[in-house]
Specification:
Blueprint: H1 2-18, E1 25-27, E2 39-43, E3 46-50, E4 56-57, E5 59-65, E6 72-78, E7 112-120, E8 123-130, E9 134-140, E10 151-154, E11 159-166, E12 172-178, E13 184-189, E14 201-204, E15 217-221, E16 224-231, E17 238-244, E18 252-257, E19 268-274, E20 280-287, E21 293-303, E22 306-309, E23 311-312, E24 319-320, E25 324-326, E26 355-357, E27 365-366, E28 374-377, E29 379-380, E30 391-392, E31 399-406, E32 414-421, E33 426-433, E34 436-443, E35 446-453, E36 457-464, E37 469-475, E38 482-489, E39 500-507, E40 517-527
Parallel strand pairs: 29-39
Antiparallel strand pairs: 1-25, 2-3, 3-5, 4-26, 5-6, 7-8, 8-9, 9-10, 11-12, 12-13, 13-14, 15-16, 16-17, 17-18, 19-20, 20-21, 21-22, 23-24, 26-30, 27-28, 28-40, 30-39, 31-36, 31-40, 32-33, 32-39, 33-34, 34-35, 36-37, 37-38
Amino acid sequence: MRLVLSFAAAGLIASLAGAAAPQASYTNPILFADYSDPDMIRVGRDYYLIASSFHFSPGIPILKSRDLVHWTIIGHVLPKLPFAPEYDMPGPHMLTDKISKPVGGTRYAGGVWAPSIRHHAGKFYVYWATIDEGVFMATATRAEGPWSAPVKVIDQKMLEDPCPFWDDDGQAWLVHSRHGAGPLILHRMSADGTRVLDAGEVIVEDKVNLPILEGPKFYKRNGYYYIFAPFGGVEKGAQVALRSRNIRGPYEQRVVLEQGSTKLEGPHQGGWVETPSGQGWFAHFNSTGAFGRIVHLEPVKWVDDWPVMGDPIPGKTSGQPVASHAMPDTGSPPTRDRLQDSDEFSDAKLGVQWEWNHNPDDSAWSLTKRPGYLRLSAGPAEHLVTARNTLTQILQGPSRMTTRIDITGMKDGQRAGLALFGVRPSWIGVVRDKGAAHVTLATEGDETPGPAIAAKAIELRAEVGIEQTVRYSYSLDGKTFTPMGSAIQLARFSWWKGSRPALFSFSRAAPGSARGWIDADWFRVERLPAKAE
């Protein structure tokens, strides 16, 4: 018996010695992905983050974490964007693959702006504005859903960035900004948060010291009402904290996060949480061009009832972004969670990482017509940016995306393939014309035909580097990839969003022509080093 215990102990010691030590620190960004205008909350041991989704459908992605650093996607608040016919891209279209506007007949840059998430009386609440339609809200008992249908809280255009707040006495409030960023406007709301009870009053406006004031988030701590808000614009702005003993003001102000001596321009706009141990954390975005507005995490300390975010700046009351930091003490060990990306299309539902460009035509795509494949039927369009059923996901930093598509269902006039989608998109794919299929590279709508192919399937690849360029290649045998063209610069900003990998299929054939299709076998993502070597 003594020998058995000895062996068991030795085995246990060896096992412990070989086990990986818990992650001790993290490096920013925590999400090298375009989760712009993030807001987050804690409910029990779980943390939830939402972000702007604009014209993509389903809308308002919901992420979940136990450690504040590693996240997974658990769903969306909006299955579709039901706010106006333009979310179905009815046209008429003046937009082309060479220009970013006018966007008539679509809702590019519309849709969901800067949503807020809160948990109150056993329910999750999400509020958002659509710049063309008003302010809306939805509720759920579980963050995974199902979510209620949207309720219009304010029927007024040109409002943005709403955030609710329930005070200790149960009174509900709503703060928001206006398009053009500012001023901040406060409303009383019904207890259930479904309607405002007044026309609203301006509580903060300071165009000299707080230009472009937007994205307010309401909190209460130690008897103070706080509004955390970005100012100064998307690319160069900073973060201000506003505080008052009265919710209606007047509010004192203090800059709490700015660039400082770091290289990180415009660190601002996000959400604050406290862990069960009392640590404070602030998740915010940083605008990075074609990668979109990626998410950084800052520690928060309180000094004289003012927050200081990031590393304190000597001689100032504000902080600056941290490049790395000790892991948050969330009460849970670090996880290995990660945002979903690759998809074998073997499930009955699309993976939660996918979002359509505008609402899809559900009759033109299927996961069941050929199990194990995603079928995309070609709708009529002259340009990729006016085609329906372009299926996208958020670009996760430097990446290599590869997909295999079966092209035997393609018809004359059809284009299909793999794109980096946004303003002035580029793509590699197959064009079928006059009975022949050609590998084709397109940039801003200009197509460069490659060789004719007789194969039934082709693998397409897009590799995005840290310098925000994409290189395309293809393979007919799944082993050797042939480059097409040279590196293509990605659009810096696309209707408030970063560039996105996308699968597409559309047709320039005459009206009434037979509709072709492609079957995507899989879509695989390899994440590449996030720093230039």
